[in-house]
Each structure stands twice: as structure tokens, then as C-alpha cells.
Amino acid sequence: MSIRDKRLQADYSKMCDTFPNTGKIRILQTSGNPPDKYQIEFDVISLVMTPKGTVSTKNKHTAEIYLTATYPRQAPQCRMLTPVFHPNIAPHAICIGDHWAVGESLPHLVIRIAEMLAYQSYNLKSPLNGDAAQWADKNRIKFPIDKTDFSSYYENGSSISESEKNSITDDSIVKCANCGESVKGSNIVFCSSQHPVCIDCAFTCAECGKVICLKCVTGKCSVCKKIVCAHCIGKCSLCKADICLSHTKTCYVCGNKVCDDCSVTCSICGKTVCIDHMKKIPETNNYACINCNP
Fold first, then answer.
1. Fewer C-beta within 10 Å: the chain N or C terminus?
2. Are residues 34 and 113 in the same domain?
3. CB of 82 within 8 A of CB of 64?
4. What whole-number distance in Å separates Cα of residue 149 and Cα of residue 191?
5. Which of the given ranges, 1-15, 93-107, 121-135, 184-198, has the highest pLDDT on average?
6. Do 128 and 61 share a domain, yes or no?
């Protein structure tokens, strides 16, 4: 089995574990063996443009994810099969930005699309749909459209018990929980969720240092571009970019978590403030928080 096929098999296993048919995110169908194309149904409230030119809600959406011949080195190709009115979604593509990395799991990408549909995630700086970006900028108070907490999908399955782990000897033959390769016990790595994996399927969270694998939901920080585990990835409250803990700042005024691009240092009190709570000091080029510059 090639390295790519091993990755595809690991992805399929994790996709089936993460998205059962009873949840808000479901696998409608797949193509290939192992699968390299998925149709995913989202039971998520999002927005559509009606024939009359008004914006309305809709709660059933279908997306297609295609894992090209260059996957996982290159990002999957993603597109909606049903209409959506969103700044970062066009008929031909879903903009996943430059967030993709080889170590990001396919389920995390699917969850990111769900968060986009729910308007829990959007980027107005480089939109695919200019009309949706203008509308979203004027209607931020309405977001998120769907408040579903998708973090429940971050739970990891397929771990082994402590007794099973202790029964593995150096000469034991163990199947990698990701790619299915048979590996000697002395070469098995256990990730932080106790998935037994081969060395090729193990990664290290750049934030907390824990060993993670493709069965663990992982993400990529938009600032440092490093792979981190689901517990060390967050979102900027303003631009909605994925950020690791090291690149997360807290606004002194509102307490929201923001990224470097959406925060400034008050020139008077020296505290970190989000761009929504800072103002330019008249007749200067300096900025201060609204507490120091009401």
C-alpha cells in the first residue's frame, strides 16, 4: 500500500468514527477504494440568496471534498453542491485559506466547513463572494446563524485500554490505528489519546508537545502555521482565523480572544486591545483603547 493510500485509509477510518449517521454532519457517499472523494451533508443553519434577492436561512447543505493525487501534500479541493451565501464560499470552491497542512486531519477540515456554514467562521479580508462579504460586514450582530457547539466532534475514539497497552511486548505485532500497517511492538508509538500508531502517522502538537495522530482532530495556526491538537487551537473572535494558544491575545476591554492582526497595544496604558475597542488619538498617529481615549 502506498503512503497516499495509507493516508486515505486512515482518513476514511477517522471520518467514519467522527461522523456517525445520527449527527449533524453525515457522510452521504464516497468514491474510490480507499475513498478519495466525499459528499458530506450538513444539518446546519446557514444563509442562501433567494431568487428575489433577499437573504434567507436554510438548514440542509451538501459539500464535496476531493483528495487529489497530490494529497496530503496539497490541500483537498472543496466545493458546495448546494447554494450558500457566505463571504468565503463561491459556487466552484470553499476557501479554506492557507490553513491546510499535511498533519491536519480530514475531520477537522469538515468541522471547519460546518463552522463556516454556521457563520461561526468567516473572513472578510479576502472574500470569494463580495456581495456576501458586504452583507456580513453590516450584519455581524446576527452571527453566528447557528450556535451549535461542534467541539463534541473532537472527542477521540478507538483508543486501547491500559491493560491492552501493557500486554504489548517488543516482539508483538500491532496494527497502526491510522494506516493499518503491521508494526513491531518496539516501534509502536502511543499518541496522547492512546491510539497505537506507526512513526509515520505520529505528529507532535507544537503548542502542548503531546503526541497526536490522524485519529486525533488537529488544526493549523494561521499565524505560525504549526500543527496543534484540537485543545490548543482556537479562533479569533473578530476575523475568525484559527490561532494557537501562543498567538491568542485577550482584549483588556471586552475580554475576547483575538489574533495579532486584530489587536493593538494602547499607547497610553500599554494594554492589549482588540481593534473594535481602540480609537485614534486626535491630531496624532497613535491609537489608544476606549478607556483611555473615550
1. C
2. yes
3. no
4. 25
5. 121-135
6. yes
pTM of the model: 0.65
Asked whether the predicted pLDDT for residue 156 surpasses 80, the reply is no
The rounded distance, in Å, linking the Cα atoms of 144 and 209 is 32
116 and 21 co-located in one domain: yes
Whether residue 241 lies inside any domain: the answer is no
Statement to judge: residues 90 and 207 lie in one domain: no
Range of the domain at 204: 172-235
Counted domains in the chain: 3
Mind listing the pLDDT tens digit for each residue in 229-257?
877 888 888 887 888 888 999 998 888 88
* Residues 8 and 77 placed together within one structural domain of the fold: yes
97 pLDDT band (50/70/90 cuts)? low
- Do 123 and 149 form a contact (C-beta atoms < 8 A)? no
Residue 139's CB: how many other CB atoms inside 10 A? Answer: 13
- What is d(CA 238, CA 83) in angstroms, rounded to the nearest whole number? 25
User: Which residues have C-beta within 8 Å of that of residue 43, sequence separation ≥ 6?
Assistant: 24, 25, 26, 59, 60
